[in-house]
Amino acid sequence: LQLVESGGGLVQPGGSLRLSCAASGFTLDYYNIGWFRQAPGKEREGVSCINHSDGNTVYANSVKGRFTISRDNAKNSVYLQMNSLKPEDTAVYSCNAVWGVQDYWGQGTQVTVSS
Q1: How many CB atoms sit inside 10 A of residue 34's CB?
Q2: CA–CA gap between residue 11 and residue 85 (Å, rounded)
Q3: What are the distances in angstroms from CA 7 to CA 53, 69, 81, 93, 101?
Q4: Which residues of 2-19 are buried (b: 16+ CB within 10 A; e: fewer)?
Q5: What burial class does residue 74 get, using C-beta atoms within 10 Å of its C-beta: 0-12 exposed, 13-18 middle, 19+ buried?
Q6: Would the CA dihedral through 45, 83, 11, 75 be positive or negative?
Q7: φ, ψ for residue 9, nearest 5 deg
Q8: What CA–CA distance (Å, rounded) separates 90 from 80?
Q9: I need a labelling partner for 81 at 20 to 30 A (CA). Which of 13, 27, 49, 92 fits?
Q10: Hey, which residues does 37 pair with through a beta bridge?
Q11: In this predicted model, what pLDDT tens digit does every residue of 93-110 receive, in sequence order?
């Protein structure tokens, strides 16, 4: 049972990346999914989350209007589209799936925004 993130990398300011979070060994259908990030020397912060039942989404103020979270239950995956990236978006991004007491984390994917 695991979550695997992908899609990170090095991008110039103003660029875009699309992160993926794929589940294996379990289905994401009933899980609420969140994306978190942690920059060096800083605490982990919530970026965005999506509800399993109605698809309602929430965004941190720092990414609102630039990032979009979505899910594709058929592909058992969740995505984070990141546009207009800024150097301060540089961090390790991780996805988290929660359903009751079941709580899974991925290993993270590095996003670096730099010219």
Answers
A1: 20
A2: 8
A3: 26, 14, 10, 10, 28
A4: ebebebbeebeeeeebeb
A5: exposed
A6: positive
A7: 160, -165
A8: 14
A9: 27
A10: 45, 93
A11: 999 999 999 999 999 999
Q: Hey, what's the torsion of the CAs at 22, 28, 33, 38, to 10 degrees? A: -30
Bridging pattern class, strands 109-113 and 9-11: parallel
DSSP 16-61: -EEEEEEEESS--TT-EEEEEEE-TTS--EEEEEE-TTT--EEE-T
Looking at per-residue pLDDT, the higher value among 6 and 28 belongs to 6
- Tokens 């965005």 sit on residue: 48
The structure tokens 């007491």 sit at 101
Tokens of 56: 């309602």
Render pLDDT for 35-47 as a digit per residue (tens, 0 to 9). 999 999 999 999 9
Q: What percent of the chain has pLDDT over 70?
A: 100
